[in-house]
Amino acid sequence: MKHNLRFYGLIFLLSLLVWLNGRSLTAEENNPLSPPPFPPQPSELIAGQPQAAVGGDYAVYLPFITRPDEIGPWVDTQNRQQVVNFYLNDYLASEGVSSGWTGNVGSCVAGTTSAAFKEAMLRRLNYFRAMSGVPALAGFLADYNNKAQAAALMMSAEDRLSHSPGTDWACYTESGSQGAGSSNLYLGVYGPSAISGYIQDPGSNNYVAGHRRWILYPQSKYLGTGDIPPSSGYSPANALWVFDTANMWGPRPDTREAYVAWPPPGYVPYQVIYARWSFAYDEADFKNATVVMSKNGAPLALTVNPVVDGYGENTLVWEPVDSFGAPTADVVYQVTVNNVVINGSPQSFSYTVTMINPGS
Predict the structure, then answer these.
(1) 14 pLDDT above the threshold of 70
(2) d(CA 203, CA 200)
(3) Alpha-carbon distance 321 to 275, whole Å?
(4) Is residue 353 within 8 Å of residue 291, measured between CB atoms?
(5) In principle, which of 62, 224, 317, 358 could form an S-S bond with 241, CB 3.0–4.6 Å?
(6) What is the CB neighbour count within 10 angstroms for residue 105?
């Protein structure tokens, strides 16, 4: 009898593990695909050809997005009220905009989305860039949009993600294949929510936070977006073209800080503080870097993720052992990143992140 109970108990445990594993895989499928690494530098740029001559069609969609004059090129995150206003007026303004999509997945028609929807996408992208202290994107490049839209159609039609889709994929096009290889890719999410998802960068395959690094890459001026909303029998999808080939190898522009961190130093709404924290510094060596954190003065445990270069700027990523729900009062995190080797010299950086509730 005891042997039978042990046997059935073992079967139950095995079944539970299989079920949990299945749920884990399903959850993983809702995460963005691992990001695309840096492409080879075009020979035209290596040879010194003017950047404006590279990149094809420069018909650019420039939406009418304005920012209060007092904010300037990025947000002063040391100003609590400015951070609150920017979240309420810019981040939330990109929510709930109708896609106006004109396509059909079943007929392999990529279609397009409305100008207002693209404006919402650009507003969400520039929210994160402004909070991070990097220059705003100038707009979307029409050629990038078209290829990203074709890529998003393929992901939705095939119901899976790949940066190298085969010619046997549903709705395959060469344009879509180029878009897939040059884009952040998301299945099950589209629109501004996909942009926030890329900044969050969830999933075990995204421990390097590469999607975030591409969105916050200072040199980028023009990206492209492709969005497929949910339709009968098909999942929504987003492809965000991130290889701004005319500018990505250009000189680094001025940024608010010498580094680019997420969450950034200063006041930050809890809604955009995620489990993975990152610190980027151009061409820095992070392989022996360490991180120390405290929460309201008490030491905070964390795990530093393996360092992998090749996605935007060199970056260190770590995961504090904490939750980031709505706080009843401001929460102060002190961060110190040690042994960042820059031009052969080890340096340390310290900054404070204050998590706030912009609705209180």
Answers:
(1) no
(2) 9
(3) 8
(4) no
(5) 224
(6) 27
